[in-house]
Design a protein that fits this description.
The complex is a heterodimer of chains A (693) and B (71). Chain A is built from 20 helices and 23 strands. Chain A is α+β, with helices and mostly antiparallel strands. In chain A, the strands form 6 sheets. Chain A has a 6-stranded mixed β-sheet with strand order 2-3-4-1-7-8, with helices on both faces. Chain B has one domain (16-67). Classes of the chains: A alpha+beta (693), B mainly alpha (71).
Chain lengths: 693, 71
């Protein structure tokens, strides 16, 4: 092949889009080598577009095995050398290196953010033989043809080295924390018990788990207190309305009873009517955090799922780059062009036309900015494939939010009528929309109840139909869910938009937390206990944030990478020394936590026979076979036992059999679909299945 | 010293977790007494069966009831 321009992208789908956009006929040639796809496009010259698979290089220790700490010497190396299961990366790097040999010019077209910049830099430096200083940079926020052509024709003359330096430092600092603390925990437990279990923590993971532990503690220590509320119904012009008592909370039962007795069967008089007009401004554009929050509250999608869906929509050129913290939409994105594109879809036609008829399109914007990308917006393209239901929902949400930010304020009228009843005041509230404004664009996603009141006037008498008091109790603080935890991390400024969702997932993977409404496990508690006792510094939000700020300064204020790394090592060194001195104590505490966690994993549920013991997966000492037995067997109370399949892995489901209500377990055998097993020998479901067979 | 409830290491009669819950149980009695003119035993019984009571607070209430302790 003649000399060509080699463009490096972050993912295969981005390579295809870029090649299609740049090829003069829109049909680049797809070639596969060693299972690695790349594209050859013809323009004024030959272009080869080759994708990466996210990070091909990573930070790893310079020498030595995995069984020691502290480790402060690191290097960047191909991922296949540092991680198990990353073998395909070897072929990827080999293919890119081969393509680099014949390239005359290099362009980095990875995502324009901190991670994308590090990915592109490492490939150009290590796989392409030191081309990082001569390569150009394509900068774009959408994978649309027009923007890609523009980014190719007018590339940045060099890579963004400040961004790369900040990104590399973040990886290195996180590696220093993660590898040292994880090794310290894991080795302490292993040396004490002789058994291996991965226990991890990290610079952001530790403080995040601490939030959850603190919340869990206040839930577990919570003592509810009683209070009462008063509910009343009034009749106005033949219609029944619920009214609120002047005090939201009554602290004594006797007071609540007295209010009910005072008002029952009485007539009230409207003493005052307050009418207020409220102007509700349009929402601001989505950054990744607010999109994740909205998608969780509307559809129940976890932040990680929303991010994955948004990335797929970006790669399909339907929305702009989603990993952004910007809440701004600059005019350069071409508002009119996007709306015209959207009007091709019948659902958006009328709405887009209404916005296009405005004299000037001015979006309402938030305060947050991102130097690399604007807020998330639709490209105006229509899908060129069938979208899955979750993709369709997120796309629709982004489209409608985009249109809503250009809408007029909504005007609402709220009315509060005060009703005097025998010395007590009740409030009747009404709320109606006078002008829809932006809400018409965002209609499917707005939850607001309208209460239209009949025409009433001061001095008018109303009949009290019913008054009663309700017994209530204060509730414990709510558990975090993936969305509220992500918001908390954002608020306190730990982690980045790219890493927060993954850190939350790691807490689940390590079994420190369970359930969507997050419950901290005993193992999670014990990890925080150990860290709190022996190295509280690594749980400090303040310290994590300070380090975070310094890393940001590398990008914007020219802070030196070496200084930040030196500081990280200075913090870590004494912590790890202290840890090593107390390794035996820590190992004992952790081993006990792991032992308890492993027992917990084997508990299936309450024994249906004795009702007080727990059914558990046990192993026979004689035959080594596994079976289900009751924990009361050891107390000589219950001899309940059931046979189990001897092949595959077993996991309690936490659910009960729909037929008999007994706890169930999931059986997984390699090559077969997992199934749920009800081990009740008399389960009616089994009988039915038998008779069917 | 071991925690009277869970047997964990403790510097007083309860471990840190149950100590915090115990303090909450004691603190909230005043509110319950004012609201319902309730005795200490009835209060403990009420919170022990209330679904909003936290796990550790419930364990403390049950333990105090069993021991017949006064506030």
């Amino acid at each position: 092949m003649d000399k060509y321009t080699l463009i490096v992208t972050e993912k295969p789908e981005a390579a295809r889009r870029i090649a299609e956009a740049l090829d003069i006929k829109g049909k680049p040639k797809k070639i596969e080598e060693n299972g690695v796809p790349y594209y050859v496009a013809e323009r004024n010259k030959k272009i080869v577009v080759v994708p990466a698979l996210g990070h091909l290089y990573t930070v790893t220790h310079e020498r030595g095995g995995r069984n020691y700490y502290p480790v402060f010497n690191f290097t960047w190396a191909p991922r296949y050398m540092a991680e198990r299961g990353a073998e395909q990366i070897r072929l990827w790097i080999k293919t890119i290196s081969k393509l680099a040999e014949n390239a005359a010019e290099f362009i980095d077209a990875c995502d324009y953010d901190i991670e994308g910049s590090v990915i592109g830099y490492c490939i150009l430096k290590y796989a392409c033989g030191g081309k990082e200083n001569t390569a150009k940079r394509m900068k774009f926020s959408t994978l649309t043809k027009k923007e890609l052509e523009n980014a190719y024709e007018k590339p940045l003359s060099s890579l963004d080295f400040a961004l790369i330096e900040a990104g590399k430092t973040r990886h290195e600092v996180d590696w220093l924390y993660g590898v040292n603390l994880t090794r310290a925990l894991t080795l302490a437990a292993k040396r004490w018990s002789g058994k291996y279990a991965t226990l991890s923590t990290g610079r952001v993971q530790g403080p995040t788990l601490k939030f959850l532990v603190e919340r869990e503690k206040s839930i577990r220590c919570f003592v509810p207190t009683p209070y009462w509320t008063i509910k009343a119904y009034v009749e106005i012009q033949g219609q029944t309305f619920e009214v609120e008592y002047e005090k939201e909370i009554i602290e004594r039962k006797i007071d609540a009873e007295n209010i009910v007795n005072d008002c029952k069967g009485k007539t009230g008089k409207i003493s005052k009517i307050n009418v207020r007009t409220i102007k509700q401004l349009p929402p601001i554009p989505f950054d990744i955090g607010s999109l994740q929050t909205e998608a969780y509250s509307l559809f129940g999608y976890t932040p990680r799922r929303t991010l994955n869906i948004a990335e797929r929509l970006y790669l399909s050129a339907l929305i702009s780059y989603p990993r952004t913290s910007s809440q701004k939409l600059p005019p350069a994105i071409n508002y009119e062009g996007i709306l015209k594109g959207l009007s091709k879809k019948s659902d958006y036609q009328k709405l887009a036309a209404e916005l296009l008829s405005k004299e000037k399109l001015v979006p309402r914007e938030g305060k947050k900015e991102d130097p690399a990308h604007p807020a998330i917006y639709p490209t105006g393209n229509m899908p060129d494939r069938e979208l899955s239901e979750p993709e369709r929902r997120i796309w629709d949400l982004v489209v409608r939010r985009f249109m809503a930010v250009f809408g007029e304020p909504a005007i609402k009228q709220s009315m509060r009528a005060s009703i005097e009843v025998n010395g007590h005041t009740f409030y009747l509230r009404g709320r109606v929309t006078l002008e829809e404004g932006w809400t018409k664009f965002y209609a499917p996603y707005i939850r607001s109840e309208e209460v239209a009141l009949p025409p009433i006037k001061e001095g008018e008498e109303v009949r009290i139909l019913d008054v009663n008091s309700e017994d209530k109790f204060t509730r414990p603080p709510p558990r975090y869910n993936p969305s509220s935890l992500l918001k908390k991390m954002e608020e306190v400024g730990i982690g980045t938009k790219a890493t927060r969702a993954d850190i939350i997932q790691t807490l689940y993977d390590r079994k420190y937390i369970v359930d969507e409404r997050m419950v901290v496990t005993d193992l999670g508690f014990d990890i925080i206990d150990v860290l709190d006792n022996y190295c509280p510094t690594v749980l400090s939000v303040k310290l994590t944030k300070e380090l975070e700020n310094k890393m940001e300064k590398i990008q914007v204020d020219g802070e030196k990478r070496e200084n930040v790394l030196f500081e990280a090592v200075t913090i870590l060194k004494p912590i790890l020394e202290e840890f090593k001195n107390k390794e035996a104590e820590i190992g004992e505490a952790l081993s006990e936590a792991i032992r308890k966690a492993r027992i917990q994993e084997r508990i299936i549920g309450q024994c249906p026979n004795c009702g007080t013991g727990q059914l558990m997966i046990l192993y026979s000492r004689r035959t080594k076979k596994r079976f289900i037995g009751c924990t009361n067997y050891f107390k000589g109370i219950c001899k309940t036992s059931f046979p189990l399949p001897q092949r595959g892995t077993l996991k309690p489901t936490g659910n009960q059999c729909k037929e008999c209500g007994w706890p169930t377990i999931q059986v997984r055998i390699k090559g077969k679909r997992p199934w749920n097993l009800c081990f009740n020998p008399d389960c009616p479901l089994k009988e039915r299945r038998k008779s069917k067979a | 010293m071991k925690c009277e409830i869970c047997g964990k290491e403790a510097s007083s009669r309860f471990c840190n977790s149950h100590q915090s819950a115990y303090e909450n149980v004691k603190k909230n009695f005043a509110t319950w007494k004012k609201a319902l003119e309730i005795t200490w035993e009835d209060y403990l019984r009420e919170i022990a069966k209330n679904p909003n009571t936290g796990k550790w607070a419930k364990e403390v209430a049950e333990h105090l009831l069993k021991k017949g302790e006064k506030p």
